[in-house]
Every structure is written in structure tokens, then in C-alpha cells.
């Protein structure tokens, strides 16, 4: 087999990169659990007809066929309700899981879910075909109080904030509210709300001038209406003065809208609560327009300060109908972190590094193969006390065993006490058959001391691999 | 959307089942890491031609096609080197990963890998189409010392042994050595070694009489040769007397074989070392024949004592050629645990249960929506000290909030101190605006005490959900 080459769009990490990814995953999981979210996993596949309900994503779906089925007549089975596809997000599977298990879940149901998803997109612009997502959602049966729209972005901000310790830049959660946008546009006399939003969504890409032209040419706005939409999108800030500015803008255009007022009350409450619980993290930004076809209240995007060009690393919003079985409707609010993109950025930009790529803090040396059992016993004693260690693969010269540890970043090498040499016994400085004390060497400093596997421990910062900001 | 039904062969757990699965995964991971295995993940897909190298598994492979490609002409792209399939084990991807990254890995390379795999088999007999595997392997560049064939099954035995605390039955690792079998058969004059092994492999299913007949009818053995094979397969034991019994059997048939002697030396060393490091866990069992088409030394199966009919829950062996790039050959030894089958058994047979299905140890009650910020502040203080908690979703009557906690198994409910009533202020027993002390209630005992979120902690056994043996 020739040396294989990577598959574009399917990222994999070397062991030290995986230490970084695992740290990110563990940190997210811990924060989610501290906030009371229960972990679930769903199967990787869903019936194709369920995946295709959102038409615009259909081309991204990977369809599964069993090799035998394909081979029989050259085409996969086409019976849609038997066909399976890989999920492209964790929201569709979660909605199905909620309906399937509604009778066994307690609502409001708060869950986190960290899994791979697949999209058959052309890999470009840092887009992956397989990537890990970390989602939190809360879903109610019949109703869901607004305060969850305040809580969920703060949980994500807390989770990402925990990663600042390893060098993740500061995050800024940008929030908007669909009711504000819809109320304002309708109040202006623009009823193609989705059309306006789709156009406004291009602001960062094409700029205000082109968006203004498009609003006139494609959505049928007057110049004044277009300018009002651009003025609304230009409003942002981290305190409730944002609400006043939107109100003033609306008043200047004679816009009166109950929906707008409702949205502003919600947006103001969110910014208010966030300024107490996580000062400076949440910013109201009226140009945020994402996925407004099914979001119905708050919407969120999250950027890394100083890396805004990366786009949003964590997005979501409120949806009045996550799922419905005809009798009960399940509203929800949730956000999703693109973990692979985040880890790829952390590693690619050399922002972080693992202190080592192997778990072992100690390499137990082997004096000769006949005494390997002594080394195994040392390792067992250390492991029983929670100290990760490895035993040298061969009884090479100690210098080579030390290089084995050094190459892997293992900080300590342990030397089991040796039988005394015949000379020492003859000289009376040692007793035949009585092993000398074990010793442990910090191979970074060269310091070597007597040690007992029943009591010795490495410094806490050396016990497990850690993830730290890169020096460079 | 009507209520969806489960997909056969694609297991999912409710939140409390996921607590059990997560505990199993965390326990395995910790044991693997204590033994120095580095964690990696590989992508879910491999090129189809790589997956089909082992012909007998071809029908199990799920092939991917992008929906668009299928829709164009009704057939997926057939260009084999562009086609991708889902991996059906973690060995094929690991071999590819080793070759792809050989220049960046340090050998011997010890890795663990815990991921889902997919097989398009008919779901039956507890077989899943999607399931999690937990693999450990060590791979060398050019060579790999025998002692790893002793170490790896003991690591798996240690990992599974950790699960006895939650109610997993005792495990027994059954070991054999391909050299023993091959040396013995060839020494008898039976050169169709694979044929004999395939037939012997059916012993548990069809019994000795039918296997004996098949050896004569299908592999061309004489009655005496067939009986000798059956006699070999009947030998088992946990000490080195096994080696003596095999030698005696060989001698009685005039078998002389260097390969047999080499295999017996290895098997004896394994049983010997295991009896010191994990007494009673490893049993030599000469009928173990698994996958001997590519295993070349030790082979392993693992059964749960008292649940032998489940079959092997953890299997593997030594392979002289895990991978090869033409210049370097990479021998390895590894084992794989079928985690989903194990968890399914633990849950299905009601052997274990989670103490609760949500992470929260505390529900912080909400007195009224106007003081929700007080409850949020309590929750933040508890979380900052590592105590998982949830805040009540609505300011319902306290009785209802307590039932909310009770239904989820949350053991403690926290009541933020309240503003005094006007009567108390008038009576001089309280000061207006001065909140009374917070209180926390253990809803199991009913005990309620004053508490400070800056210092109070639940008993350690209540802090996180635990997995315990089921009472029943």
C-alpha cells in the first residue's frame, strides 16, 4: 500500500492535536453539565425524507447505500422512506429524538450533544465535509419562557470563556431579534421580510452601497425604505441605548409596530441581563440576520475578537416550532459551536499547543528483559495512584530509553533499583540480592532522586498533558 | 410530523442510559491513558477500495454518495478511488493513519480510539448497524517485541475490571496462539490450516461430533487427525500446565514442530505473566480460533463470567503486518471492545442504573420572575465552585418546583432568601429590604438548612450522577 494522502475536507489530528481537541471537548462538556444540560447522542443517520425537509440543504446530504444493493443493478434503492442519509446538523436529529421520546423526557428538556456531522459541500474557505459540532438546546412542550433566550448564549459565552485560559481570543456574542427586524420592515411598508433579510445578510460581504441597490432592485424598496433598512442594520451596542436608537429611527420613519415593540423589549432584556451576568460579552447588532426563515425570536452569532473574518463560530436562535407531532408543539432555543473549525483555527494559527502528545508522565525504564516484571510492578503501583505511565519497550541502554521519553515529551524517567554488582558485594558496600532504591529523573532539569512508587508523585502540572497558549 | 419510530440496529439511549454509556467510555479512556495510550480519532470514511481489501466484509460496507450525484443519472459515481464508505472497524482506518503519518509518529506507537463504526448487516442477535468500539493497539516500525502481546490483554482486563464497580460481571480473557495451532496441524500432516481453524471455530455452535465429521469430510482429515484436533481444542487452563498438556498431546501423535514450540513458549509466557499481574483473569483456551487469516501470534477473546452466551465482548490479536508501505512493515497487536453491545447488555439486563439522568445536583428555586436574577446569581456562585445546578424554569409554587427536581432526580432544592413580609417588618422581627438567609432542602430526607452559596457543597456522592449496580 503506497502512502495514503489526506482526504480534503475530512480533518484529522496528530496525537498532540487531538490533546487540544479533547481539551476543548472536555471543557465544553463540563460547562454544559455545570449548567444542567444532559448529554445525549443520536445515531449518525436519519431517514432521507426527514433530512430533505429543509430544501436548501438537500445537495449537501450524503446518502447511504449498502454495497450489495448498489451492485445488483447499479443504482441504490430509491424508496425514499427506506433511504438513510448522514445528518448534516444536530438540530434535525434532536427534533426527531424529542418527538420519538416525548413521553419519556421531562420538559423543559435541556440537552447538549457533541457529535460529528457531514456535509457534501465542496471543501473550501475552511469548510469541512466532516466536522464536530457542540450544541446546546432547551426545548419545551407547548411553551418555553423567554428567559432561556437570555440563558443559552450566556452558557456558550461561559464555555468559550473557559477556553481563554488556553489562548482562545475573547468572544463577542452578537444578538438580534427577529421581531425587531420584521416589525420594522413591515412598519416601513416592506412585506417581503425574508427578501430584505437575505439582502441585509450580505452586508459584510458586499457593503452598504450594493445592499442598498439590491433592496431597491430586488425587493422593491424605495430609496428611503432601503436607507432606513441600512440605518437599522448599522445600529449596535452593548447597552439598552440600542433600544432607544431603534425606537428613534422607527419614529423618524413613522413606524409603529407591536411586533417591533415586543422584539425591542426582548432584546433590551437580553442585553440588560447579559451586562450583569457577563459584562461586555453580549452586543446587540441589528444587522445579524441568520437563518431567519425558521428562527422566530432571538438570533445569535459569535465572533472571536481580532478574528472577525473567520465568521461566526457559534450561532443559533429561538424557534417556535422545533418539532410538532400535531398535538403538541415543541418550541426551543439553542446554539451550536463548530468545534472542528475552532480547533483547526487554534492549531493552524499556532495559538495553542499541548505540553505533550502522550498521556504518560513517567517512563519506567527496563534494566534488562529478565527484570521487566520489576518495571511492570512500578508502573502498576504508579497507575493505581492515578499517575499515567509507560514502560520502556526494550531494555536498551538508559541513554536510549531517556531519548525515547524525551522524543514524546514524557518528563520523568523511572529507574527501578538494581541488584548490586559483584564488586560492591565483595567490597561490603552492598548486600547480594538486595535491590538498591528506585530513582526518578526529571529529564528536563537532569535532577535525579531516590523515589518510592508508593508515595512519589509528579508536580500537578506534569501529571497529564495540558493545553497552553503557544509561546510564538 | 407523526411520532417517529426507532430504526432497527441504530441504538440510542435516553439521558439516564447515556450517563451509563458515558461512564463506561470515561472509564475506558482513563484506563487507556493511565497505561500510556494516546487518543486519536480518524474520519468516519475511507476510500472504498481500502475498505474492500478484506473481501468477506464487502457486503457490510455502507457506501456514500452525494444526493446530487445520485439524482443526475440515478446511479452513484462508480469511480472506485473516489468512492467513500463508512468504516466498519477501527483497524483499517488506524492502519491507514499510521502509514499516512508514519514520519510524524514515534514508534512503538500506542493509541486508543473510541468511535462509532457502521456495518450494513441485518440487525439480529444483538448485532447493531451503528455501534461504538473502543480499541487499543500498539504498532511498531519494522518490529514489535513479544511483551506487548502480554501487556495489551491485561490493559483491557484492567479497563473492564474497573467496570465491576458498577455491576459488570467478572471478565475472563481467553488466549490462544496461532503458532501453536498451525504448528500442531502441520505436524499432524494437515496443511489446510485455515480450513481446520474455520471448522474448529464452530465448536461452540455445533459441538465436537459435527466438527469432527466436518474435519474429515471438508478438510480431508483422517479420523485420527480429526480427533487430535478436537483433543487440542479441548485443552484449557490458567497455568503453564496447559503447555505441558499440549506438548504431551503432540508427542503422542509424533508431532514435532519448531513453530509449535515457539507458540507454546509465547503462550506459556503470557499465561505466566498474567497469573502474576492479574491472577485468574487470563485463561489459555486452545479452541480460540478467531480471524486467524491475518492474526499471526496471540489471539484473544473476552467473555463475561455467567454471560458466556453473549459471546466475546473484547477480541483481538497480533498481526505481523498491520500496514506496509513497501519499505517498512508495521506489526501490531490490539484488542477491541464492543462498547454498544456491552452498554446495551448492562441496560437491557437491568444490571446498572444512573443515580439521575441530569447533571444538576441542585435546583435553584425562583421566588418570582422579578427576582430571577437572585437565583441566577446563586447558580453562578455554585457553578464557579464546580457544583452543577439548574435554575427553575418558572416561578411556580415551591411545591411544583420541588416536584420538578424530584422528577429529574435532582437531590437538592435551593431557596434564595426572601424579602421579609410587611407584617414581620411592622412587628420589628425583620428589616425591610434585608433578605433572609438562603436555605437548601434535601428533597429525599426533607431536611432544610440555612446555606451560603459561597461555602455549601452537596455530599461528594451527590455531586455528579453516578452509575451503580441496580438493586433489582
From TrEMBL, chains A, B:
Keyword presence, Ligase: yes
Top EC group: ligase
Annotated EC: 6.1.1.21
InterPro entries to which the protein is assigned, alphabetical: aa-tRNA-synth_II, aa-tRNA-synth_II/BPL/LPL, Anticodon-bd, Anticodon-bd_dom_sf, His-tRNA-ligase, HisRS-like_core, HisRS/HisZ
SUPFAM superfamilies recorded: Class II aaRS ABD-related, Class II aaRS and biotin synthetases
Pfam annotation, one family: tRNA-synt_His
GO annotation, cellular component aspect: cytoplasm
Keywords annotated in UniProt: Aminoacyl-tRNA synthetase, ATP-binding, Cytoplasm, Ligase, Nucleotide-binding, Protein biosynthesis
Domain Aminoacyl-transfer RNA synthetases class-II family profile: 15-359
Binding site for L-histidine: 89-91, 119, 133, 137, 290, 294-295
Domain of life, source organism: Bacteria
Subunit structure: Homodimer.
Entry similarity comment: Belongs to the class-II aminoacyl-tRNA synthetase family.
Name of the protein: Histidine--tRNA ligase
Organism this protein belongs to: Sediminihabitans luteus
Amino acid at each position: 500500500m503506497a502512502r495514503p494522502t489526506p482526504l480534503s475536507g475530512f480533518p484529522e489530528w496528530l496525537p498532540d492535536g487531538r490533546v487540544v481537541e479533547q481539551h476543548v471537548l472536555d471543557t465544553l462538556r463540563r460547562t454544559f453539565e455545570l449548567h444542567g444540560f444532559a448529554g445525549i447522542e443520536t445515531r449518525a443517520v436519519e431517514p432521507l425524507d426527514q433530512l430533505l425537509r429543509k430544501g436548501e440543504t438537500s445537495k449537501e446530504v450524503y446518502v447511504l447505500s449498502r454495497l450489495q444493493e448498489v451492485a445488483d443493478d447499479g443504482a441504490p434503492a430509491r424508496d425514499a422512506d427506506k433511504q438513510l442519509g448522514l445528518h448534516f446538523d444536530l438540530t434535525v436529529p434532536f427534533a426527531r429524538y424529542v418527538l420519538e421520546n416525548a413521553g419519556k423526557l421531562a420538559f423543559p428538556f435541556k440537552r447538549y450533544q457533541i457529535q460529528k456531522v457531514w456535509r457534501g459541500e465542496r471543501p473550501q474557505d475552511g469548510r469541512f465535509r466532516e466536522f464536530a459540532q457542540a450544541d446546546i438546546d432547551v426545548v419545551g412542550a407547548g411553551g418555553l419562557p423567554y428567559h432561556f433566550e437570555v440563558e443559552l448564549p450566556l452558557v456558550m459565552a461561559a464555555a468559550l470563556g473557559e477556553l481563554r485560559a488556553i489562548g482562545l481570543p475573547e468572544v463577542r456574542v452578537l444578538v438580534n431579534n427577529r421581531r425587531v427586524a420584521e416589525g420594522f420592515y413591515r412598519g416601513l411598508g416592506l412585506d417581503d421580510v425574508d427578501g430584505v433579510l437575505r439582502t441585509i445578510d450580505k452586508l459584510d460581504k458586499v457593503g452598504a452601497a450594493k445592499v442598498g441597490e439590491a433592496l431597491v432592485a430586488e425587493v422593491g424598496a424605495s430609496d428611503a425604505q432601503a436607507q432606513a433598512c441600512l440605518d437599522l442594520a448599522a445600529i449596535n451596542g452593548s447597552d439598552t441605548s440600542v433600544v432607544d436608537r431603534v425606537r428613534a429611527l422607527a419614529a423618524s420613519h413613522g413606524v409603529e409596530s407591536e411586533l417591533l415593540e415586543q422584539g425591542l423589549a426582548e432584546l433590551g432584556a437580553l442585553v440588560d441581563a447579559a451586562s450583569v451576568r457577563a459584562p461586555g460579552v453580549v452586543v446587540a447588532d441589528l444587522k445579524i440576520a441568520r437563518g431567519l426563515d425558521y428562527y422566530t425570536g432571538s438570533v445569535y452569532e459569535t465572533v472571536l475578537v481580532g478574528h472577525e473574518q473567520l465568521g461566526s463560530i457559534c450561532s443559533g436562535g429561538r424557534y417556535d416550532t422545533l418539532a410538532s407531532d400535531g398535538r403538541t408543539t415543541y418550541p426551543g432555543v439553542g446554539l451550536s459551536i463548530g468545534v472542528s473549525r475552532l480547533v483547526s483555527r487554534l492549531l493552524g494559527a499556532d495559538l495553542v499547543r499541548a505540553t505533550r502528545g502522550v498521556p504518560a508522565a513517567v517512563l519506567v525504564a527496563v534494566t534488562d528483559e529478565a527484570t521487566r516484571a520489576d518495571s511492570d510492578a512500578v508502573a502498576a503501583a504508579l497507575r493505581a495512584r492515578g499517575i499515567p505511565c509507560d514502560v520502556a519497550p526494550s531494555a536498551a541502554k538508559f541513554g536510549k530509553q531517556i531519548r525515547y521519553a524525551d522524543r514524546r515529551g514524557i518528563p520523568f524517567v523511572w529507574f527501578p533499583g538494581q541488584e548490586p554488582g559483584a564488586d560492591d558485594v565483595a567490597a561490603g558496600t552492598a548486600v547480594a540480592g538486595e535491590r538498591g532504591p528506585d530513582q526518578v529523573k526529571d529529564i528536563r532539569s537532569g535532577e535525579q532522586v531516590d523515589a518510592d512508587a508508593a508515595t512519589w508523585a509528579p508536580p500537578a502540572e506534569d501529571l497529564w498533558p495540558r493545553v497552553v497558549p503557544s509561546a510564538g
